[in-house]
């Protein structure tokens, strides 16, 4: 009994060791997190992760803690659009003599301009105002060199040590003679209370004008501008440039009419395709893919005209209707082709978002024939966080380290069905037991 108990304890401990999710993966990557207190992180996947993965859905890519236990994680699609930040460029400005904030329109300007229309010198005369009338400085902003509509002015100022709450009217002109109101009431703020500060230096314009005039309305006494920038409208969102995998093909038949075959290593999320023709060339192509050798081919793009003429004339890449992770690809030409072209498959890195527990450091594990990432409501948690921090908020980025072998090729072999073996063993043992009872009964003499 003692010997049997020892063997049972050994079996249980061995099974517990192999129950760790990390032990069922081929490779691992150590993660470096920027902020230990964030609690949730985003890991952009690189080419090494896709090369190690085996699952068509990337279920064998997971995050584990220092104990080798999986933490809540979910795969997120790639961000395929890039919205450029608004451009800001400094522009010259000129201070106009102090004008009555009750009668700002009484300014008379004498402006000297260069040949391109830019302002060189400004002289202004202000009608006499009562002594009791508050005085403030108007500003002339030269936007004649800006080749786009002005979205806003961003100002920096000095001369007022205390809180600032100044309001202006923004006027625009193309000839410095006729002025029109662009914004009737805009405010500059610089307030502080209890160690917190609220500063608003941006004045929306949303108009086109060669010259802008800032006319003070209230609270602008003593304000001295030190810098003026023009904010240009943000450009329209454009698709992010994909990363490319270049594949060499081989003919699928002697005549080449059946197409050229290509093998993709790794589970890359393919979203676009391109053909690199040798030298000058043109032709019509259709792209197909499939998961295994015995699966039917599925058309992914085309037929489309691919061409390469000179050094800068190339056909644009083709967008796929859906993200595809198939391993086998085929190009079918519209006419006879002597040699297979280079097939370029474009992909965008996805991200694995995980919730950190109290057992760092964390590791990314990938490549397994028997392990699968557990389902976790990370997307719902992320949506709740964005309700309080803003819809553009993103979890801090965790950095991937070098790839280190874990279980290696053993993790890529399918797991044996021990339940079937156990069932057969029980059946054989039962049959032997019944045979033993029968033999015992036959040897026993009748009473």
TrEMBL record:
Which keywords accompany this UniProt record? Membrane, Signal, Transmembrane, Transmembrane helix
- The leader peptide range reads 1-19
> Which residues span the membrane?
421-442
Q: Which InterPro entries match?
A: DUF3999
Its protein name is: DUF3999 domain-containing protein
> Can you name the source organism?
Luteimonas rhizosphaericola
């Amino acid at each position: 009994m003692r010997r049997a108990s020892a063997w049972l304890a050994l079996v249980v401990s061995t099974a517990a060791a192999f129950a760790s999710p990390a032990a069922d993966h081929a490779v691992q990557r150590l993660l470096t997190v920027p902020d230990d207190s964030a609690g949730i992180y985003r890991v952009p996947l690189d080419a090494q992760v896709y090369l190690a993965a085996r699952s068509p859905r990337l279920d064998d890519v997971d995050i584990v803690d220092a104990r080798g236990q999986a933490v809540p994680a979910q795969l997120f699609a790639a961000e395929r659009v890039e919205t450029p930040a608004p451009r800001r460029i400094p522009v010259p400005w000129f201070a106009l003599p102090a004008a009555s904030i009750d009668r700002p329109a009484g300014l008379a300007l004498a402006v000297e301009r260069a040949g391109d229309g830019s302002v060189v010198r400004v002289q202004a005369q202000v009608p006499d105002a009562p002594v009791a009338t508050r005085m403030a400085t108007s500003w002339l902003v030269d936007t004649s060199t800006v080749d786009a509509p002005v979205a806003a002015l961003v100002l920096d100022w000095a001369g007022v040590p205390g809180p600032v709450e100044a309001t202006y009217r923004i006027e625009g002109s193309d000839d410095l003679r006729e002025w029109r109101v662009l914004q009737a009431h805009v405010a500059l703020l610089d307030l502080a209370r209890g160690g917190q500060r609220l500063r608003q230096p941006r004045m929306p314009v949303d108009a086109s004008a060669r010259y802008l005039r800032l006319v003070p309305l209230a609270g602008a006494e003593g304000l001295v501008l030190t810098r003026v920038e023009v904010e240009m409208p943000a450009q329209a969102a454009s698709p992010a440039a994909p990363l490319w995998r270049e594949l060499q093909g081989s003919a699928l038949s002697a005549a080449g009419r059946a197409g050229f075959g290509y093998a993709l290593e790794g589970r890359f999320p393919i979203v676009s395709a391109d053909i690199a023709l040798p030298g000058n060339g043109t032709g019509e192509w259709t792209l197909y893919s499939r998961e295994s050798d015995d699966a039917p081919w599925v058309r992914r793009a085309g037929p489309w005209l691919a061409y390469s003429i000179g050094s800068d004339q190339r056909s644009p890449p083709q967008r796929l209707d859906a993200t595809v992770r198939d391993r086998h690809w085929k190009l079918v030409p519209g006419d006879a082709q002597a040699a297979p072209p280079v097939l370029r498959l474009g992909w965008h890195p996805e991200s694995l978002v995980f919730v950190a527990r109290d057992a760092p450091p964390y590791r990314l594990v990938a490549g397994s024939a028997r392990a699968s990432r557990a389902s976790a409501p990370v997307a719902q948690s992320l949506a709740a966080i964005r309700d309080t921090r803003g819809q553009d908020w993103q979890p801090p980025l965790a950095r991937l380290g070098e790839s280190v072998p874990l279980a290696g090729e053993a993790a890529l072999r399918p797991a044996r069905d021990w339940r079937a073996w156990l069932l057969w063993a029980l059946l054989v043992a039962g049959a032997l037991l019944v045979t033993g009872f029968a033999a015992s009964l036959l040897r026993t003499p009748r009473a």
